[in-house]
Design goal:
Largest interface: A-B, 45 and 51 residues
Radius of gyration of chain A: 20 Å
Shape of chain B: globular
Distance between the termini of chain A: 61 Å
Strand order of the largest sheet of chain B: 5-6-7-3-8-9
Order of helices and strands of chain B: EEEHEHEHHHEHEEEHHH
Oligomer: heterodimer
Shape of chain A: globular
Distance between the termini of chain B: 43 Å
CATH superfamily of the largest domain in chain B: P-loop containing nucleotide triphosphate hydrolases
Strand content of chain B: 15-25%
Strand content of chain A: under 5%
Chain lengths: 281, 276
Amino acid sequence: MEILGYPFVQNALLAGILAALASGIIGSLVVVNRMVFLAGGIAHAAYGGVGLAFYMGWPVLPSVLGFSLANSVVMGILTRQRFERTDTIIGVIWALGMALGIVLIDLTPGYNVDLMSFLFGSILAVSTQDLMLMGILDLILTASVLLLYRLLLAQSYDREFLAARGVNTTVLHLFLMALMAASVVMTIRITGLVLVMALFTMAPYMAEKWTGSLMSMMIVAAALNTLFVTAGIALACMFNLTSGATIILVAACFFLLTRLPFPVKRVKGRAAQAPRGAKAG
Amino acid sequence: MAPVIEIHDLSFSFNGHPVLSGVELSIEAQDFVAVIGPNGGGKTTLIKLMLGLYQPDSGWIRILGQEPKRACRRIGYMPQYATGEKGFPIRVLDVVLMGRISGTSLGICWGRRDRQKAMECLELVGMADARDRLVGSLSGGQLQRVLLARALVSEPEILFLDEPMANIDMGGQGILFDLLAELNRKMTILLVTHDIGLISRHIKSIVCVNERVFFHNAAELKPEMLETLGLSGESCPVEMIAHGVPHRVLKRHNADTDGRRQEKRDESYQSRRGQR
């Protein structure tokens, strides 16, 4: 417990919790919109932003944020019509972003030992500025999701119906992409770009099974992610392991436990009740 | 009185393939229209054009005297199938409330008036008891009725229903048609169906869509007319419409250039139905 006295551990825990909240909320939207692959593309392509920051000598997190936001708008425009080759385009941008990052870092003179930490996370690297940026992003993310909740819900459930009600679904799609980009940036320090997907998928997927609304799914997913991140960081400190990977192993263990074939309490209404309403049908 | 739907010289193509061309259509208030035609004939496309979801290549559409984009909130729309998947965490009441959404629906909660209206519509379709059930647990027919409630909850002046009878058994279809006939007193209804066996006696006119669009008004469907054919109109107008010659009650589409094509199509309809 004395380890909690170190400022870097406190920073890491705080950053972890901030990232867990963002990835629980946005991850839920990603899962219900079936945009997991798209989120993966944004996360990996964000490495281009890391390369750019090093090459230009800019601060890393704000640069990655700017790069990812721009990238998310491009991807959003390319994927707004759900035509057949959407996944191929995501694959192209996914690889392009990473390649750009690697070449830019090659071109940067000097010592580049820090790079692995952006791919796999490093809790030692969390600075106070990072924490402030993450806090602000968390506030913006939460506030905008609360503000647009009903529209985002309708967009996720039946986009065409929302369009038929006269709502501009393309703008909403682009906004959702931007939210994804921002939350990817939050998790760079904690799990790294490569492992972000775990926080985006596992907790929301578990939460979806246990809840009856998108709102409660987001809350449960954020809570689960907080649990995974806290436990993961604690274990990483105790056994001197890589934080990101430890967090994900904790999450995966929990995930597998809930998938074991013992009876899990089901949500009211989730159970089969088909015969009930059949009288008039 | 001005027609509620007016389409003039409309053409629309998809990736260079013409889907609809030279469409002229005028539908009066309080009409109950069945939109029929083969699969891929452009029925759903026509509905989506009228909702402003697609833009026509040429020609224009006026709904209640306005552009489709402006009028879309005065239309109730029930899509062919909900795109939402089975596992989506959403309850019946929340799906119905979605029918009242607009670009200014900010915040988390719906107002009391919205909820009240949603419950009324659920009662109307006989799904009030299911308000808190997850949508994924509903049967196809139940989901269909919830989506109808969603289309009605905005108190529309026109109702567009795309294949509302799919997933519903014969008894249910009768009940649903009675409900629609009731609603028809207040609103114009357009009902798309690919199954021409499903034309109910409540239908007042028929629109045939197969790239071109033909309108057959109420006069062509008068019960007396059916009786002169030696059939009792009340019991089954369906038979006559479906089987064409010698029971044909609709006039032949009068575009001469299309006459041969249309005839061929009618034949293929019949042979397909015969195979069933």
